[in-house]
Amino acid sequence: MRYALLIWDEEKRQNEMSEDETQAQMAGYMGFGEEMGSRGVLQGGERLHPTPATTTVRVRDGEVLTSDGPFAETKEQMAGFYLVECKDLDEAIEVASKIPGAAYGSIEVRPIWEM
Amino acid sequence: MTTPDPSVEAAVARAFREEWGRVVATLIRTTGDWDLAEECAQDAFARALERWPLDGVPANPGAWLTTTARNRAIDGLRRAQTGAAKAREAVMLSDGAPAPIDDSGVGDDRLRLIFTCCHPALSVEAQVALTLRTLAGLTTSEIARAFLVPEATMAQRLVRAKRKIHDAGIPYRVPPAHLLPERTSAVLAVLYLLFNEGYVASSGDELVRGDLASEAIRLARTLTELMPDEPEATALLALMLLHDARRAGRVDADGELVPLEAQDRSTWDPAMIAEGQELVDRALRRQRPGPYQVQAAIMACHAMSPTADDTNWHEIALLYGELVRMTGSPVVELNRAVAVAMADGPEAGLELVDALADRLDDYRYLHATRADLLRRLGRGPDAAIAYERALELTATDAERRYLERRLVEVAGT
């Protein structure tokens, strides 16, 4: 089964990290990518720019409405995602628990709706 | 129509209790479809009511029921005519002719079912409801009544849980060794919660909902058979039996709550206590201590004492100390305080209770315990305040009446 692993973290915490902490976090993500890539689990994934760069779009009565920022204010923001192919939820949970962000933020495990 | 034969009906009822979970568990594995599995299991029992009076009760009712249910499932899949159903049908047919049941294989299916029902990705409410429905065979309406929710709510809860198992890819299996300790404790927690719901209803006027407690004991017994090397499972069964042995003595003829020290010990069930004690010993011999073993050892201590005064409270206080170390739970510390009060006097107990006041201010038993200790120290007005606070937090009628009686007592001092 395929799962999206959505990484939620506080942008505030990210902004306050020291140079060393940022480096360590990067190394953590590189290591995760290598491990899961060689295991054949990883199908894709990206880091997202923080919410100040976000635009929300809605179409109402045929009119395109754009607004600044994410659609909902939350304490944690989505910072990135991975797309993984796993045997079942137990494997997806195990993979999610190895994402560095799991140690300070939260990982949401969402099964992909296969068409 | 055949005339109902009471002995055959009893045989079907017994088969239902003993075989329902087995039949459903096997069908879920072979069909991959929880609803179809339940439906076919139900059909098989209905068929048994028709056939057994004519053909006699089969030598192996479980095998008869599984085969009948399996044939229904194959029919159902054949009618469904979808690609997935065809694939399933092919798998089931290739399993071979209705084979005699392989005991260990079927046992594994029930274990798979328990672990899937109690998967931590499901809410605890869903875990409890699924376990009762699929493993114990309670109807949706029975489960709804047991948990005081409308039947439609319970039906919805079950539908959502089964959908999540399917959509999220929760595996139907016994977890691998590295996940087993964590998952086993989730299973034990669900069974114990079920037992406690039956034993102490947290609301409503029925103090003992014995059916749920009996179901929990039956499920714990099954788990113990399936995991004989797991001392915590053995200990949980022991703990339930040792509690349940006192069921008759916990409530008096008027439905009023009777505290442990005032219970008539001749009402306790000696056979259940003996079995419980033997199970505690068996668990402890494995030398892998755990919280259920300590709790069961505490209950065994109570059950062995001929009177409340003869209870070895020092031993019980030590065991609670061990349990606090394992769990870090303030509720357990409160129990330790009660034991210390019995061993060393109410003053010593009160000191421990007061130290917990901040952490357990919303917990009714903290205030009830405090009130009781203050009453025993002759501090009537302080006790009255504590009884009133406990009453504010209590929802069970029998508990309310007990606290009110005590409040009247201390109000006169």
Give a concise summary:
Chain A has helices at 11-15, 19-39, 89-97, and strands spanning 2-9, 42-47, 55-60, 63-68, 77-85, 106-111. Chain A is α+β, with helices and mostly antiparallel strands.
What does this structure look like?
The complex is a heterodimer of chains A (115) and B (413). Chain A is of the alpha+beta class. Chain A has a single domain (2-111), classed as Dimeric alpha+beta barrel (Alpha-Beta Plaits, 2-Layer Sandwich), CATH 3.30.70.1060. Chain A is built from three helices and six strands. Chain A has helices at residues 11-15, 19-39, 89-97, and strands at 2-9, 42-47, 55-60, 63-68, 77-85, 106-111. In chain A, strands 2-5-1-6 form a four-stranded antiparallel beta sheet. Chain A has a two-stranded antiparallel sheet with strand order 3-4. In chain A, strand 3 (55-60) and strand 4 (63-68) form a beta hairpin. The longest helix of chain A has 21 residues, at 19-39. Chain A is flat, with a radius of gyration of 16 Å. The two termini of chain A are 12 Å apart. The model of chain A has no long low-confidence stretch (mean pLDDT 95). Chain B is mostly helical and 413 residues long. Among the domains of chain B are: 6-101, Rna Polymerase Sigma Factor, Chain: A (Orthogonal Bundle); 361-413. Helix content of chain B is 72%, strand content 0%. Chain B has helices at residues 6-31, 34-55, 61-80, 83-94, 103-117, 124-135, 140-146, 151-168, 180-199, 210-226, 231-244, 247-250, 270-285, 291-304, 313-327, 330-344, 346-355, 364-376, 380-392, 397-411.
